[in-house]
Amino acid sequence: MQKLIITAAITGAATIPSLSPYLPLTPRQIADSAIEASQAGASIVHIHARRPEDGFPSADPEHFREIITRIKHNCDAVICITTGGSVLMTVEQRAATIPLFKPEMCSFNMGSINFALHTSAKHIKEFKYPWEQQYLEMSKDFIFKNTFKDFEYLAKVTRENDTKAELEIYDVGHLYNLDHLVSEGLMSPPLHLQFVMGVLGAIRGTPEDLTFLTTKAEVLFGKKNFTWSVIGVGAAEINLSTMAILMGGHVRVGLEDNIFLKRNVLAKSNAELVEKIAKLADMLNRDIATPNEAREILHLKGKEKVNF
């Protein structure tokens, strides 16, 4: 079994500041949280940016530059930059950082879904910033668009910049979308699949759903042609992480996906969530991959070949 790659998703675009006082918002906070997560055992850090004044999701390359430069100078973690951004951004805005910074990895969403966030509103008594309530409510009537035209664009961008695509699979149809891209020569093995489970509007975070996705991926691509990791949104995080550790997959945790360390207890940092998985992996006799071991497992180009 390969060593376990732990990814830490630091801030995201779905978690709003009013849900947790521990969510990093400024470039300095996001970078420092990523560095702490790396020190706790994360070999990959998944990066979104936010406006420092109010925490609104940002596509500004200069916000990203500050974050990723600080991370690179202070730890050895693989930096995976989002091309998901937020549902309000075009694919060109979401992917603008890739040709600019040429990171080792970036996310690559494999299908359109209803990405519903509005249920979070019932847990908030008072919103910290004016944009938050509308941001949640509008998700009732919004589609996170990832079309075949978008796939072609992102495939070209990742290929031209030698950036490894982390293929975000929110439902089984996304595997079939990817199979089409492979058949057309737009994507080629070895593939790295990130199963995103528990988003309202996509596949649920149940054990049978994870085994179904992994089995279907093996049928489509062949077991030796892909690696996989799992995201369990909210309460599903630890359950699915445990399964992934036992099944030979990899794990993503972080405040982007889940704000709780355990029931009704907020995680005070991304590092706390990483530490919990590291302890769990140790109990289950699965060694943790270092950043350089993760680079070898995922066939990445190396830290020295990025443009920041």
Automatic annotation (TrEMBL):
It holds the Pfam family BKACE. GO terms for molecular function: 3-keto-5-aminohexanoate cleavage activity; metal ion binding. The keyword Transferase applies. Keywords: Metal-binding, Transferase, Zinc. It comes from the Bacteria. Its cofactor is Zn(2+). The keyword tRNA-binding does not apply. This is 3-keto-5-aminohexanoate cleavage protein. It comes from Desulfomonile tiedjei (strain ATCC 49306 / DSM 6799 / DCB-1).
